[in-house]
Amino acid sequence: MKFKQPLALTLAGALMCVSLSACSKDEGAGEGKSAAKPEIVSVEKGSETVKGLAGMNSERKQVSYMIGMDIAKSLKEIEGEIDVDMLGKGLADQMAGKALINDAQHQQIREAFAAKLQAHAEKTAAELPKKNLEEGKAFLAKNKAAPGVITTASGLQYQVLRQGSGPKPAATDVVKVNYKGTLLDGTVFDSSYERNEPIDFPLNAVIPGWSEGVGLMPVGSKYKFWIPSELAYGEAGGPPVIGPNATLVFEVELLEAKAGEPAPAQ
């Protein structure tokens, strides 16, 4: 299970909100005492239900199941820490006004668990730069022997997926590209294809791996690049998705290259 440092606090906050007693507790309630029971709100009948759901032929059942799904999604990152039977019991007991722990115990358990998550996140964050660097080097060492993969002097690796016949861009050109960027595990962190819109940028204003790689491409080409961390975002990474020392993978189509604006006079 992977945690980024800010995630522990996020998860702890999510747990607080999932707990109905914590989110609806009156500020004046004393320790060991239940908060004032909220007014039960009923919704007028007549809302449409989704047809054909086995065992869920009423709005009440469908809404209840939907809320259960939302709770499960909010706990996805810590599912290994959750006893589903006790989660259901806690929900049912609290809604029935028969919780087995008082407010002080609730707070104690929540704070201890949040501290555990935070400690785990800090440990993972401290280890992540070295882990990513080692994984990237191991991957690139193996990948350089793959058919069609070329490794440049800088360590950039690329493969020609389609060779165009246009000119290669100069270092100061503005290029128009379509691209998809992924991590080594296949996670997509950026894609102009998903936005259905190519992007224009000065070739000398991007990460070194892009400047070098796109500079190798004749217009009309499509290349795949494997960019080591030192030619990408380095130890700083690109939060929240790109971790420190992450090796990146890009598929790039070079659509156009044109001369950039001249540098302003000094």
> C-alpha Rg, in Å?
27 Å
Q: Please work out how many helical segments DSSP would assign.
A: 7
**Structural category:** alpha+beta
Biggest β-sheet: count, sense, barrel? 7 strands, antiparallel
Question: Which structural traits does this protein have?
Answer:
Chitinase A, domain 3; EC 5.2.1.8; disordered N terminus; 266 residues; 7 helices; elongated; isomerase; PPIase_FKBP_dom; peptidyl-prolyl cis-trans isomerase activity; alpha+beta
List the helices and strands and how they pair.
Blueprint: H1 5-18, H2 20-24, H3 59-74, H4 84-95, H5 103-143, E1 150-151, E2 157-162, E3 174-183, E4 188-191, H6 192-195, E5 199-202, H7 208-215, E6 222-227, E7 248-258
Helix pairs in contact: 1-5
What does this entry show, briefly?
With 266 residues, the protein is an alpha+beta fold. The protein is 38% helix and 16% strand.
Could you please describe the fold and organization of this structure?
InterPro entries: PPIase_dom_sf, PPIase_FKBP_dom, PPIase_FKBP_N, PPIase_FKBP_N_sf. It catalyses: [protein]-peptidylproline (omega=180) = [protein]-peptidylproline (omega=0). Belongs to the FKBP-type PPIase family. The protein is an alpha+beta fold and 266 residues long. The chain folds into two domains: 5-120, no CATH class; 144-258, Chitinase A, domain 3. The protein is built from seven helices and seven strands; from the N terminus they run αααααββββαβαββ. Strands 1, 2, 3, 4, 5, 6 and 7 form a seven-stranded antiparallel β-sheet that branches. A hairpin with a 5-residue loop joins β1 and β2. The longest helix has 41 residues, at 103-143.
